[in-house]
Each structure stands twice: as structure tokens, then as C-alpha cells.
Design a protein that fits this description.
Blueprint lengths: L5 E7 L6 H8 L4 E7 L5 H7 L3 E5 L5 H14 L4 E4 L10 H10 L4 E6 L5 H14 L9 E4 H7 L11 H8 L4 E6 L13 H23 L2
Parallel strand pairs: 1-2, 1-4, 2-3, 5-7
Antiparallel strand pairs: 4-6, 5-6
Helix pairs in contact: 5-8
Length: 220
Amino acid sequence: MARCRVAIVIPALNEAKTVYDVVKAVSLYGDVVVVDDGSSDDTARLATLAGASVVMHPQNLGYDAALNSGFREALSMGAEILITIDADGQHNPTLIELMVASIDSGADVVVGVRNKKQRLAEHVFSFYTYLLYGIKDPLCGMKAYRGNVYSALGHFDSLTSVGTELMIFAAKSHFKVKQIYFNVAERNGLSRFGSLMSANFKIIRAMLLVILYVKKYDNR
């Protein structure tokens, strides 16, 4: 697998416990871009030490903004395939190879499907996207995109929809979407969604924004 065409984008907020090992593991499959989204710990230093290119946000701008920055950096490096993976160590890095192979076989977007979801709102959002697009886990942080999908939309996410806008755009635009099933490891540290109540609110809000986006898209 040619390293120069694959970029792995990792949004990170206070992930000093895990980011070094995650970067080392995924760097076997491509060039790594870590977006330090206003961390107050050693996330940026350890990511750099592990060999990643690090994009710094001076303050926390959120998950979607971090991925927007990471995708811009990856494309400036000449990447043709863009992989997103979380910094918390829950995702199996070997899946990157399967995702790239799926892109090479004709998929435009590859969505990871976790074996378990933690929150009621995740199940609700998943039901919505499965009903409309056959996508079973829209909130999984591990996805792969062909570069031209990103270029067609022009950004990763403008809705703050927890990383789902580009995927929904691809499905609506009849790009080929493939899904890969995997088992998630236990998370080391706090969830990027925050507390249970906060997480459910963010996810339902994201789903409503996506529904409004879809209606707007359909009216074009």
C-alpha cells in the first residue's frame, strides 16, 4: 500500500494517555495528521514524538472543526484516501488496510460499524440512517473517504453533526458506500461526547440538523 496516497486524520482532545500508541500503530498504513483541539495536556507533544503531523487549535473548536482542519491538512499533503480514527484506542488500526482495499475495489466511502453502542440516541440516529441509506452506524469515528467525495462537498462538516455530513452527502449523491463490522475496545478516558445526558443531546441535535440538511438538499 503506497503511503503517500493515504492520510489518517485523528482529532484529539486531552488524549495524552493513548495518542502516542495510536499514532505509532496507524502510521504503518499511511501519513498521520493529528488535530490537537485545544488540549491542556501533552497530546500535541506526544503525537509529534510518535511521528504525526500536528495541527494545533489554540482553543477547543469541537470534533467537526478538528476534522475539517485535519482534512485540509491531509489534502495539502496530496492524500487521495482520507481515513478518520479516534485517538482513544477503541478502533483496531488493522481495519485501515481493509478500508483502503475497499476504496481500491470501488467504494467511495467506507463506514465502520461497531459491535455495540453506548447511548439511546446512537440507536435512534442509526435507525434513521439505516432506514434511509442502509447505514448502520453513522456515528462511528472510523471511516474512509475517497478524496473526490470531500472535494465534491468542499468541506468535511458545516453542520456540527458529529462527523456525519460528508457521509450523508455521499449517500445522497449516489457515491458507493461500504460498511465494515468490527469490535470496539474499551475506551481509556472520558468520551468525546461528555456525560450521558450531554451526549444524548448532542447526538439528537446532530440528527435533527442532518434531517434539515437532507430536506434542504432534496429541495435543490
